[in-house]
Amino acid sequence: MTLFHLLWTKSTTISSISKTSISPNFLTSQFRQLSTSFLVTKTPKKFRKKRKKKESPRTKLVQTQPNINPHFENILLRDTHFRFLTKTKEFLSKQPLNVLRLDDAGKLHQQLGFPRGRKVVRSLQQHPKIFEIYRHTDGKMWIGFTDFMEQLLEEESCIMNEMEIDRVNVVRKLLMMSKDKRIALSKIYHNRLLFGIPEDFRDRIRKYEDYFKVVVEGDGKRVVELVNWDPRLAVSALEKEYMVDEDKVKKAFKFPIKHGKALDLDERDERKLNLLYTLPLVSPYSDGSKLDLWTVEAEKFRVGLIHEFLSLTLEKRAYIHNIVEFKEEFCLTKHTYQMLLKQPRTFYLAGTEMNWSVFLKDAYGEDGVLLNKDPQVLFNEKLYRYADMKGIDADNDVYET
């Protein structure tokens, strides 16, 4: 029998068996016996690795260890602690007779700075030396300043009058740094506490026609324009410091130049090369709008402008919203945050990625205390001390002039 005949006979036999003896049900049962569905193919929850949740920019700190400066971070905590005091003081000062109905105050959580859903009374009771609650003859409960606080407000008013010329020069310098030498009056008003500008500055500005001109635009917006350029004011704080300590200013910023390894530079030569690339700095009082946006010269201008902006503030620091408000006038970009992070010798960014604040490091001592304090800063510190007094301390303390 040939091999082909044997193969043909075997295949015929198998096909005949499959047609007669193997049913579909049999094949299904055999397949089920070989199924692997009983095997555990997923790792049980208790054995799975827990993925670290990405931290929100609202809570993620800008700085990480060991770069965190607790002194600067604590200043921001102080701002949060006295937010209600600051906002309520400003709001009440603009009300007729400096009073407000308690029922109305409870609806103004954003304007007064107390947590939403909380009772305003709880916040008022935290500062018994500053605010008082009383029943008026109309039978309604009202809130206002204590007699002690009224004395403090008179003192603050005297400081505002004494410092008026200084504040006028601050506004002049801001206008000189701006692109078109004009800024919306509302922007200066919104940031007035940053510079110690009085609340009624919009009225006081009329006395200085030689410096300012207020223009009403078609949409009703009032804009303050610079009348004349004063070269004596067009000198930045950095330039003044350069005359005193040249080496210190040279080390303030760093704009490293990229170079190939083939140059084989040692650390000293690399430092000299970077210094040649860093200097000269660009004056914040030059026209930054003419610079190519992404050049090193433009970045030098923006860094120098932020430095000068901070030097004009009371506490040599500002929040992101203060800086962003002048973004168009100062030719800033959306990369300001990353730009400042690259200059850790001069700037310290505190707070969270969503709401950060930038400090001029040289303006503070190693203990985190401001070296040169404006009279308004000294007044604010005294106000904070009195605001935290409670109970017996608040009743027995003697007013200091």
Walk me through the topology.
Blueprint lengths: L2 H18 L3 H10 L36 H12 L1 H11 L5 E3 H4 L3 H4 L7 H5 L6 E5 L5 E5 L1 H16 L1 H14 L4 E3 H6 L1 H4 L5 H4 L7 E5 L5 E5 L10 H8 L1 H5 L16 H12 L17 H16 L5 E3 H5 L11 H6 L5 E5 L4 E5 L14 H13 L3 H6 L5
Antiparallel strand pairs: 1-3, 2-3, 4-6, 5-6, 7-9, 8-9
Helix pairs in contact: 8-19
Short description:
With 401 residues, the protein is mainly α.
SSE series: HHHHEHHHEEHHEHHHEEHHHHEHHEEHH
Per DSSP, the total helix count is: 20
Overall residue-averaged pLDDT value: 85
Apparent shape: globular
Q: Bin the strand percentage.
A: 5-15%
What is the tally of beta strands? 9
User: What is the spatial order of strands in the main beta sheet?
Assistant: 1-3-2
Low-confidence stretches: none
Radius of gyration: 35 Å
